[in-house]
Structure formats: structure tokens, C-alpha cells
Write a structure and sequence with these properties.
about 120 residues; GMP Synthetase, Chain A, domain 3; 3 strands; about 55% helix; globular
Length: about 120
């Protein structure tokens, strides 16, 4: 698959997964999950799904991803019903702290700016 096609499919998968997680999955542990990005393998066989949560939690990263990994087969099935491709990629969920890290950097920058004023 060419890189443009991979990029388009990644974006489509990200949109569909976000919709599936918010509307079709009833597990309350997954209610605040956000799909940040999708990296699709060049052959389309698997996709790394980078997720985060916009709610605070004391759970470890592995505990946060565990319900997604358990539901991966079902989520893949729901995804297959919405996509017009021959083979839906295997889904690999990965916790992504980049949003939280970005917020921390912005907070530091604001505090530096406030210190100068």
C-alpha cells in the first residue's frame, strides 16, 4: 500500500474507533478514552492505536489499557462492519501520555511567562 493510502486509512480508522468507543462500547472504564493517533502497518495487517484518557486515574498504564486489549476483537468486529476493506487490521492499543506531557510543558511555559511579568 502506498503511504498516502496508509495515511488515509489510518485517519479513517481513528475516526471510526473514536465513534465506536464513545457510542457502542458500554464499559464505563472506556468512557473517557480518546484515540490520539493510529499508525497502520504498510501492509495493513495491524494498527497501533495510541489512546489516552481525559479523566484522572490512579491506575497503572497496563490497567488502563487492559479493558481495551480484552475488547480488541469485538472492537475490530465493529470496525469491520463500518469499513469497506478486505481485511481489517489487528488492533494493538498503546497508552499515550503525550497529551498530558504537552499540558505540563504549557503549564511550565505559562509559569515562566508569569514570572517575567
Amino acid at each position: 500500500m502506498n503511504s498516502r493510502k496508509v495515511e488515509q486509512l489510518s485517519g479513517r480508522i481513528r475516526m471510526l474507533l473514536a465513534d465506536i468507543l464513545s457510542r457502542e462500547i458500554s464499559d464505563p472504564r472506556l468512557s473517557c478514552i480518546s484515540v490520539n493517533r493510529v499508525e497502520l502497518a504498510s501492509d495493513g495487517s495491524f494498527a497501533k492505536i495510541f489512546v489516552s484518557s481525559y479523566s484522572e486515574s490512579d491506575l497503572s498504564v497496563s490497567e488502563r489499557v487492559k479493558p481495551l486489549k480484552k475488547a480488541a476483537g469485538y472492537i475490530r468486529h465493529l470496525l469491520s462492519r463500518r469499513m469497506e476493506i478486505r481485511t481489517v487490521p489487528e488492533l494493538r492499543f498503546i497508552w499515550d501520555d503525550s497529551v498530558k506531557e504537552g499540558e505540563q510543558v504549557l503549564s511550565l511555559l505559562r509559569s515562566l511567562e508569569d514570572g517575567r511579568n
